[in-house]
Amino acid sequence: MKKALVTVALLIQTMAVFAATTTIKQTNVNWNSTSSWNQGRLPQTGDTVIVPTGQAVILSNAVYSNKPKLYIKVSGTISFQPSGKLDLGNNSVVEVTTGGSIITSGTGSERIYIGGVLKYKGQADGTITGFALANSSSGSSGSGAGSGFITQILDIILKDFNAVRKNNSVNITWSTLSETETDYFEIQSSTDRNDWSTINKINAGNYSTGNYYSINDSRVLSTNTYYRLKMVNKTGSITYSEISLIRYNGIISKMSVYPNPATDYIYITLNQNANNGTIRLSSFEGKTVINKNISNSSGIVKLETQNLPKGIYVVEVKDANNNIETNKVIIN
User: Fold this and answer.
1) Residue 190 φ/ψ, nearest 5 degrees
2) What pLDDT, in 10s, does the model give residues 150-195?
3) How far apart (Å, rounded) are the C-alpha atoms in residues 11 and 59?
4) Half-sphere exposure of 1 toward its Cβ, with a 13 Å CA cutoff?
């Protein structure tokens, strides 16, 4: 298994703010059954998935086709059966804590992928016991048993990094799962992804169980702006988060969605640049439920939502110049 002193475990970007904790309800249940989970649904993008100590969840088939981004914490057991497969999105994390395990029936069809990279193959990797962690930065299966996992407890594990425009500023947030040897964070911005400048510096809290951070960038943006997080270890080692983009266009400065959460309707406020554009409301899984043309808008568009299932939805506004802005809304 691969060892590392500092590795960044990236998870969910903007959608992380809506993340839920999903836990199996009892032992020896099948992952692919909605009745196995406390949320009454399968784990979905943005979820933290918990397999508690002393309990087991069974994987006997390919669960996902849409590659969700999940943080899976295994304190109990994931038990693979032939053809069991977890095909996860980029920046997902599978953490096996001390006392937890991933076990196999020994076939080559039992697999875990993260971002298309094979991290676990039952026939080759056998039983994985904690502490072990697979993410976008860990190795791949095939270079020795457990080579897709990191086995040394990490100095810093970054759960998520997000930059979201709110009114006339950009709210930058990040959270860690562990940061015991981290010295400080720098928030950096760029207009071309090449030249970066530091806009703020925050000392790390050095919490073994992680911490949450938030700052605002109140500068007036006149072009697309990229953000990233620079993490500096006490030894001087440096790692970076993934990059988050805030687009500059005429919609952003005026667009808002309310009420949020909503029940029977939502209002979307726009400026006149959105005229002759479109509004699309889609489910969290990407299915379009409302598609509406914008023509001679007074600046406020109403969408009826009373017949929609409860859940998280994405509002996408596209103007006549194909500028796009999105926002999330919860329908209760």
Assistant:
1) -155, 155
2) 876 656 777 788 888 776 788 899 988 778 778 899 999 998 888 8
3) 22
4) 19
> pLDDT digit string (tens) for 105-163?
999 999 999 988 999 999 999 999 988 888 877 788 887 888 889 876 656 777 788 88
Structure tokens belonging to residue 216: 């605002």
Domain boundary assignment for the chain? 14-134, 156-246, 256-331
Is the predicted pLDDT of residue 275 greater than 70, yes or no?
no
CA distance 269 to 185: 35
> Rg of the chain's alpha carbons, rounded to an integer?
21
> In this structure, which CATH number among 2.60.40.2470, 2.60.40.3080, 2.40.240.10, 1.10.10.10 belongs to the domain 256-331?
2.60.40.3080
What CATH topology corresponds to 156-246? Immunoglobulin-like (2.60.40)
Measured CA to CA, the distance from residue 238 to residue 177 in angstroms comes to: 17
The pLDDT, as a whole number, for residue 249 is 56
Question: What average pLDDT does this structure show over 40-57?
Answer: 92
DSSP-assigned letters across all residues of 112-178:
EEETTEEEEEHHHH--EESSEEE-TTS--TTSSTTTTSB-SPPSEEEEEEEEEEETTEEEEEEEEEE
Looking at beta carbons, which pairs linking 171-176 to residues 24 or more positions away fall under 8 Å? 171/214, 171/215, 171/216, 172/214, 172/215, 172/216, 172/217, 172/227, 173/17, 173/212, 173/213, 173/214, 174/212, 174/213, 174/229, 174/241, 175/16, 175/210, 175/211, 175/212, 175/213, 176/207, 176/210, 176/211
Rounded distance between C-alpha atoms, residue 150 and residue 104, angstroms:
19
Q: What sign has the CA pseudo-torsion 50, 52, 53, 55?
A: negative
Task: State yes or no: pLDDT of 318 exceeds 90.
Answer: no
Q: Where does the pLDDT of residue 254 fall: very low under 50, low under 70, confident under 90, or very high at 90 and above?
A: low
| The domains spanning 156-246 and 256-331 adopt the same CATH topology | yes
Q: What are phi and psi of 60, to 5 degrees?
A: -120, 0
Q: Which residue, chain included where needed, has tokens 């720098």?
A: 186
